[in-house]
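During the reporting period, our protein records have gained a structure token line. A sample record is set out beneath this paragraph:
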Amino acid sequence: MNKPKLIVILGQTATGKSDFAVDIAREIKGEIISADSRQVYKGMDLGTGKITKKEMRGVPHFLLDINSPSKVFTVSDFKKMADKKIEEILNRKNIPIICGGTGFYIDTVINGNVYPEVPPNEKLRKKFGSYSTAALCELLSKLDEDRLKTIDKNNKVRLIRAIEIAYALGSVPKINNENNKFKILKIGLSVPDELLKERIMLRLISRIKKGMIKEIQNLHDNGTTWKRMGDLGLEYRYISQYLQKKLTKEEMIEKLYTEIWHFAKRQKTWFKRDKETIWINPLKKSDKLKALKEVKKFLK
């Protein structure tokens, strides 16, 4: 029996995945499922680089703006919803395209892994709540070295959650392609490091000018706590610290730039594990044409 076909467009932050995915989708009657752990949240637009209606250029997009920022959205939630959307797209005789930078979300769908729900361990959380991030990193390195390579080392909540999962399951489950129910084409977008650093800074300044600070103030005004903001990722953590006058504007921008770059390096580590990905530089027209050719060949 022929497996249904699925296209995945992945890569580091600021490489232009969303725009590239729309280009591909318009050529092949594709519909896009966002694989971004923060773009699921309502009201988090500039801070997550969420695609706008205009930028979608008529291409349907799914799994954006589906959850309140005050409520946690898990990888299991993502898998259930993504599986349902893929089925709907295939039933319409269109091509599902997963696009995003959250490697764990992508892996859980394309590898068909079903992860056991690990309930919160309040005793463990209380125990490790007083630990420094450095101490938590050291502990995680002993429990699950691979997870430590890709985690945000300054996010105490995620570090404790990773330790919690490692205690319950042994480690984060590894890639397993054996039970794959799809035929998959993976295209990775990669930009040279120096250029990517420049793009990160330019994008950061652009988003601040467009009102990212106001967006984060509005989230707080509408009930998202400062503590929760720290869990929602870099922009929300450091801009909320600035809004609480814990950082100057210059310190906030410098911190953000440095941490976004570190995050991009962790994304690269995660994605480079998979040797099946076809890598292109989206800034080269010849590479983009090569990718489109691969897509059309794949769909024949």
